[in-house]
Specification:
256 residues; binds coenzyme A; 4-stranded mixed sheet; 6-stranded mixed sheet; alpha/beta; globular; 2-enoyl-CoA Hydratase, Chain A, domain 1
């Protein structure tokens, strides 16, 4: 277990809170492992009907801990645990609500594509700068994001690191509501409690009908294989070193 993930039960709603605000809630392997365990247990626990993701501080999450990526790139670290988390999210049959208080980077944004109700604070910003890190999209976002917002906007997010404001995300169908930050969690909790009063069998069947889970899982596997290769490249090592050294990366010395 880790202190950086808080778990609270409100009746039939299981709330999972990213709690590492000093690192903008960057997701460490320990946090992924704990979150994956919670997701898998919740699927089996008949007393849990709805999941709610939220976060402490001013960010939802700055994405995967780049120090963990850097450790893999240098051949030292354990394999990233993000894949198991994403897999569990994609397999989740119960409804998932997200309350996003601020910046969501990388998996912070792509995990929202697997949520069923997404509430953003008006200060939220969504980014997926995978190419800036010499990586590729994950969590089936290479399939799901263009399907939601079109190829051109999705490519600009992946390849140029362009951000979407909360208002843009709402317009583009990536969020249900935009709220002032101090009203966000209450609104998301209220929605989660409302879902918990609905017939679970019907909710699960509806969610299943709305998603092509096999196609999504196949895309996650394809992306995962390429992502793993990319983590070992000199380009990725340069990107991670640049982040640690607080400088811009220089990819000009690498050929494709
Ligand atoms: N992994 C590890 N540490 C991270 C992190 C990440 N993804 N994102 C932020 N942090 C850490 C910073 O290193 C810093 O740690 P320090 O105080 O020990 O130096 C702390 O969190 C605060 O971040 P900082 O960069 O000082 O805050 P900021 O408000 O200037 O910028 C971000 C916030 C999120 C824009 C910036 O930290 C960032 O770009 N992070 C990387 C995001 C990313 O590329 N994620 C991977 C996507 S696949």
């Amino acid at each position: 277990m880790t202190d950086h993930l808080k778990i609270i039960r409100h009746g039939a709603v299981l709330e999972i809170t990213f709690a590492r605000p000093e690192k903008k809630n960057a997701l460490s392997n320990a946090m992924y492992r704990a979150a994956t365990g919670q997701l898998n247990a919740a699927e089996k626990d008949t007393s849990v009907r709805v999941l709610l993701f939220s976060a402490e501080g001013d960010a939802f999450t700055a994405g995967n801990d780049i120090a963990d990526f850097a450790a893999v790139a240098s051949g030292k670290g354990e394999p990233p645990q993000a894949h198991a988390f994403i897999d569990a999210l994609a397999r989740a049959e119960k409804p998932i609500v997200a309350a996003v208080p601020g910046l969501a980077v990388g998996v912070g944004t792509t995990m929202l594509l697997h949520c069923d109700l997404v509430y953003l604070s008006d200060t939220a910003k969504l980014t997926t700068p995978f190419v800036n890190l010499a990586l590729v999209p994950e969590a089936a976002s290479s399939l799901l994001l263009p399907a939601r917002i079109g190829h051109l906007r999705a490519f600009a997010m992946f390849a140029l690191g362009e951000a979407l404001s909360a208002a843009e995300a709402l317009t583009l169908g990536l969020a249900n509501k935009v709220l002032p930050k101090d009203a966000l969690l209450d609104a998301a909790r209220e929605a989660a409690q409302a879902l918990a009063t609905r017939p679970l069998g019907s909710l699960v069947a509806t969610k299943k009908l709305m998603r092509d889970a096999n196609r999504i899982l196949a895309q996650i596997a394809n992306e995962g294989a390429i992502f793993k290769e990319r983590l070992q490249t000199p380009e990725a090592r340069e990107a991670f070193a640049a982040f640690a050294e607080r400088r811009q990366p220089d990819f000009s010395k690498f050929a494709s």
